[in-house]
Here is the input.
Amino acid sequence: MISFLKPKTATTKIAPEHVQKTYKLFRLQSLLGVFFGYMAYYIVRNNFALSTPYLKDQLHLSATEVGLLSSCLLIAYGVSKGLMSSLADKADPKRYMALGLLMCGLVNIMMGFTTAFWMFAALVILNGIFQGMGVGPSFITIANWFPRKQRGVVGAIWNISHNLGGGIVAPIVGVGFAMLGSEHWQAASYQVPAAVAIVFAMVVLALTKGSPVSEGLPPLNEIVKDESDPAMQQKADSKPPEDMTVWQIFKNYVLFNKNAWFVSFVDVFVYMVRFGIISWLPIYLLSVKHFSKTEMSVAFLFFEWAAIPSTLLVGYLSDRFFKGYRMPPAIIAMVLIFFCIIGYWQSGTLLGTTIFAAIIGCLIYVPQFLASVQTLEVVPPFAVGSAVGLRGFMSYILGASLGTTLFGVMVDKVGWNGGFYVLLTAVVCCVIFCILAHMGVKELERNKKQAALESSKTA
Here is the structure.
């Protein structure tokens, strides 16, 4: 790990009487830092989709070439999310996240000067690679600063950052066009969002903190007592093994950890449903349901933005009423999605189809973010990046690919009914892995409580 990215070591200790006040301040700053940082990652990711009509018309790229560029971004991001999140375990999270965001900004600046297809492809792949540096540090920061009993709400707040980032891309690009004119569409589409991202990279550096210990505070388990998390009582889990490589951490704490695989497969099938709906929604509504483009746009907007209130609500409920267990509300959401997919598929009215699409959008991000939070709870804090990497790699390379490609194959071979059968099967599989993940966490808790009891008897 290059010296700039190495975790810093505290040179002074915070006085005991200032620990709680300092901890609360640093905790809030860190959450704001990763929130705005991850939001900015989406500003320099989703801007590419807005530029595709200009790529096709101004640079005379074919639909196949534009589709290939989009696939390059998706695949590069999926692979990078796995690798880069694992590397984040050994890095200072704020510097790692800020560096990735800065590099995404620089790549977008270069895209503003590019006209050759293969140069665009190379830059899109580079952007996808650097995009993978955003999610790992976010979860590591949340695990470092928040105990289990608060991670549902905190994870929900952080999770809506991508909805916010994805939603403000169009206004940012619109301002770019208003300032520069349509003849400078590359600058408006790429370089203006890049400038915004670079500013937010500085925000990440200014706000985010590494960990309580690296900031001169006691370990989290000494600052906050969380009886709901037995792992918080085990000091061995709070200190990373400095002599272990990234591969050793991944192998010992993730690769052979069945709970990490259970939660990864939950995400695979969630992404399969999410991308199966969102990728085909415009075509399905226009060609099968005979929506106008305006009506389709409204349904698409409801699908995306309905997730924000539901995510915040379920985050609170999972902490307060489900006592930190993430999978029960995820199961409820997936069961409701099962019936809403049928409604979306079979509805014969514009209003009914739009309502079912909105409910699916409202619910589909719930198990996605709950799986993210559960990832923090099935591995030690120093292996969070590796676990997030596995889940991210699986969800994009397997889940998103199946949701887009397999759905399309079934539509071609069987018709639209075949595509919806794929989605319903994915929902059932997701519920099965939610149950396995929940049982795994219960077993993990029993084992840790038993170990703590035996340790106290020995002492």
Q: What stands out?
A: Residues 150 and 319 are 6 Å apart (CA to CA). The chain has 18 helices and no strands. The two ends are 39 Å apart (CA to CA). Residues 416-458 form the longest helix (43 residues).
